[in-house]
Design brief:
- The complex is a heterodimer of chains A (97) and B (473).
- In chain A, helix 1 (4-13) packs across helix 2.
- By secondary structure, chain A is mainly alpha-helical.
- Chain A has a two-stranded antiparallel sheet with strand order 1-2.
- In chain A, a hairpin with a 2-residue loop joins strand 1 and strand 2.
- Chain A has three helices and two strands, in the order αααββ.
- Chain A is flat.
- Chain A is 35% helix and 4% strand.
- Chain B has 473 residues and is an alpha/beta fold.
- Chain B has an eleven-stranded mixed sheet with strand order 1-3-2-4-6-5-10-11-9-7-8, with helices on both faces.
- In chain B, strand 10 (433-443) and strand 11 (446-455) form a beta hairpin.
- In chain B, helix 9 (302-317) crosses helix 11 and helix 9 (302-317) packs across helix 12 (368-388).
- The longest helix of chain B has 21 residues, at 368-388.
- Classes of the chains: A mainly alpha (97), B alpha/beta (473).
- Chains A and B meet through helix 1, helix 2 and helix 3 of A and helix 9, helix 10, helix 11, helix 12 and helix 13 of B.
Chain lengths: 97, 473
Amino acid sequence: MATKEDVQKLASLARIRVVEEELQKFTEEFDSILAYVGKLEELAIDTKGAQGLPALRNVFREDGEPHESGAYTGKLVEAFPGKEGNLLSVKQIITHD
Amino acid sequence: MTKPNELSITEAARALRAGEFSVRELWDACALAARERNPELNAYLELFEADEEAIASAQKRIDEEGDGAPMLCGIPLAIKDNIMIEGRVASAASKMLENHRAAYDATVIKKLKEAGALFVGRTNLDEFAMGSSTESSAFGPSRNPYDTSRVPGGSSGGSASAVAAHMALGALGTDTGGSIRQPAAHTGLVGLKPTYGAVSRSGLIALGSSLDQAGPLAKTVADAKAIFDAIRGADPLDATSVPNGLYAPRALSQTLRIGVPRHLLESGIDEDVKASFEAALAVLQKAGHQIVDVSLPTSSYALPVYYVIMPAEASTNLARYDGIRYGLAKRGETLLSDYIESRSKGFGPETRRRILLGTFVLSSGYIDAYYRKAHAARTLLTSEYGAAFEACDVIAFPTTPSPAFKFGEKSDPVSMYLEDIFTVTANLTGMPAISVPMGTVERDGKALPVGIQFTAPKGGEDSLFTIGAAVTT
């Protein structure tokens, strides 16, 4: 059984806020979803066993320039919520006091 | 006379080459249908203005190259709004990305542009592709053209509604657990979820990275193949994409062996849907294909496995939306409150639910019981399918247990998740699957389409096209 406190804890880990009236609903839904996926408990399988090798491996590309430097800079900077020139501005997180 | 927008892609391609109508006339027919029907159906979140340059160059290519021009040249398509088109908004039907403009083309878009395809607009979906009805879209649900009191399915419901209502000749969708095949089944279309890695995902907004694939929704099997052929192939920008021919082709005869897992079809399927399924199998058998019984014991755990793995991956993928570099950016007192404000205002209820669920199954006390268990079951399921394909070439299921449902009918999450019961296995195993129409069933006096789904081993799209065409002809 999930409790409201459990859901609140998960929400704070996931950096989302769940307001009081949603909390009750989410907690109940959580229980019904977990009861459903809890069917997995019936399965007796080893979770540490070999997973087998996938057909596709060693997919890293060679070092090199994937594209001309700065090709996307302008467009990415345009999407910044706050900027100074080409720099992204964020809140100061280190203080000097 | 059939209007140009009501034709299939192959028919329109022929008519364009025969000079029966121009690319401009074909575009105008789709754009007119979209203006007339979209206000009611909400298939498109945005309709694009005509791109005169692209229309003229497609016409020129057809005039000069004739049959040498790509099949999709001059063909108007609809694009699901979690696929990036440079300079266009790419919203994923979320408040989080409502005003976000794509900085580059997805590889699939680049390929379609090179083939000369035209884009009618960007289509609605469940927020971040999370849902089976488009009801979780932040911009209102799409409607099913067969009965507007019903959902078009989801998450690629806007793409399905657009093609079924002839507002485009075909569409791109994405499929993480059935999001192309289920809406295709609910709107009388063909939908293909390709082999994992067959189509590049560069430029797609991620949901579950070990499950996601882009693919076509189309009016015919030949059209679905034409779109798939245009977008497939390895891509240096997607390390999970695979070269054509990675999986050894299987020798196939003209007649295929169709595996039917009877033990999974005993309950939970509407009687008339089951009857349509049996009728479709009978037609195939009459055409010389063979029906064999297969056993897939772990399949009954596929949906629980999926609803552990998908939220785990979704919660991880959605961690990138923090309100700092792009997307919705709310500001509070501290950096932490910037994150929380942006994410709480940006994500809708279903997205938050899945983030919470994913965070739960990955948390230290539960990762063994849920995530690792699900991962092991997924491996077992994949090997069961591998063994079943020793005795058959394709495996058949009804795509969904019931036809399209009414808005609000599945208000609790588990009943909505059950929509995906037959579709999620193809994503878990990485195998390709196609849904093709298998007739209609009647609900409230309306004929509603239903679909039959075939799965093949990895790289087996050709046998899906063969068997799919055998159902529809």
